[in-house]
Specification:
Elements lengths: L3 H4 E3 L1 H8 L4 E4 L2 H6 L4 H15 L3 E8 L2 E4 L3 H9 L4 E3 L4 H5 L4 E4 L1 H11 L3 E3 L16 H8 L3 E4 L8 H10 L4 E4 L18 E3 L2 H13 L6 E4 L10 H17 L7 H12 L3 H26 L2
Parallel strand pairs: 1-4, 2-3, 2-7, 5-6, 7-8, 8-11, 9-10, 9-11
Antiparallel strand pairs: 3-4, 3-6
Helix pairs in contact: 4-5, 4-13, 7-8, 10-13, 11-12
The chain binds pseudouridine-5'-monophosphate and manganese (II) ion (MN).
The site of manganese (II) ion (MN) has 2 residues, from loops.
């Protein structure tokens, strides 16, 4: 029998950074395997790692291979994962299923938080968190429950635009997850800078986000802090383009009866096709930007100790 700790394979660079109290940023792998097509997925994975390093932190991309949870992938493994077929999408409910089989599995926000937190990593960057789906009778991402039960800092560009953003924010409030938006009064809209939903809390800069995160984590309440950063302006999609493409994609998904874990990747791919690839540029830019912000946050958190 192997528990969570025995499943972890922490890369030497990550292990020594953690031992020395240096900043480390966890990165997830479902956006590589399911969120973006090849070769953009390889580009964004490499670029995110480079952004983390440029900001003075050590990247730790998390994925599963042959029953082990890898914390930190080398470039060859990253390429292998990005090109592999039949990669399982592992979340809290499917983590065991991903570990009892051979081959690659990618970790979603929930599974990445579980693994990163077990390895002692406190800061994690993704693209957009999962949340409450629109149109589906009942589909709520396990990302939200994980944010409620695993104390760390998660950096994102808001809930994915394919979701019911107001319901997602309500869910986070109910489950005690503080949401801090850097530099604006609206929750970021993933592909678009705004979502039209009021930010639960605005912080003016990264240092203020860190101040809030440190205070929240010190209280020992058990939940994460969600830090939201809007997509860089140059690659943002206009609000109406985002709305139209998302509405189309959701109607098509309902007609095609797509549901469960396939729904999110299916919608992201449809939105990419409907926007002629513009959503891919926004998605890539926001992922890399979140990695850089997370690295600076990890640096500030490490400094304060
Ligand atoms: N951010 C992106 N693209 C993605 C994801 C995040 O820019 O594909 C992934 C994350 O791994 C997140 C998952 O946990 O989508 C949500 O899937 P679901 O809605 O099935 O919980
Ligand atoms: Mn779901």
């Amino acid at each position: 029998m192997s528990g969570l700790a025995e499943r972890l394979m922490v890369a030497p660079e990550v292990r020594s950074a953690l031992a020395a109290g240096l900043p480390v940023v966890a990165l997830e792998s479902t956006l590589i395997s399911h969120g973006l097509p090849h070769p953009q997925n390889v580009e964004v994975a490499r670029r995110s790692e480079a952004e983390v390093r440029a900001a003075g932190a050590v990247p730790a991309t998390v994925a599963i291979r042959d029953g082990r949870i890898l914390i930190g992938l080398d470039d060859a493994s990253l390429l292998e994962l990005a090109r592999a077929a039949g990669v399982l999408k592992a979340a809290r409910p499917t983590l065991a299923a991903a570990l009892v089989r051979d081959g690659w599995a990618a970790t979603t926000v929930s599974a990445t938080m579980i693994a990163a937190s077990a390895a002692g990593i406190r800061v994690f960057a993704t693209g957009g968190i999962g949340g409450v789906h629109r149109g589906a009778p009942f589909d709520v991402s396990s990302d939200l429950e994980e944010l409620a039960r695993t104390p760390m800092v998660v950096v994102c560009a808001g809930p994915k635009a394919i979701l019911d953003v107001p319901a997602t924010m309500e869910y986070l409030e109910t489950r005690g997850v503080p949401v801090a938006v850097i530099g604006q009064d609206q929750v970021p809209g993933f592909y678009a800078r705004g979502s039209g939903v009021r930010a639960p809390q605005r912080v003016d800069d990264e240092a203020a986000a860190v101040g809030l995160a440190r205070a929240h984590l010190a209280l020992g309440l058990g939940s994460a802090v969600l830090v939201c950063v809007p997509v860089p302006a140059a690659e943002a999609l206009p609000d109406d383009v985002t709305r139209d493409a998302v509405e189309h994609a959701i109607a098509e998904a309902a007609m095609a009866r797509v549901h469960g874990p396939e729904l999110t990747p299916w919608l992201l791919a449809r939105v990419a096709a409907l926007t002629g690839g513009a959503s891919l540029r926004a998605n890539t830019a926001l992922i890399a930007n979140n990695a850089a912000v997370a690295a600076r946050i990890a640096g500030l958190l490490a400094q304060a100790e």
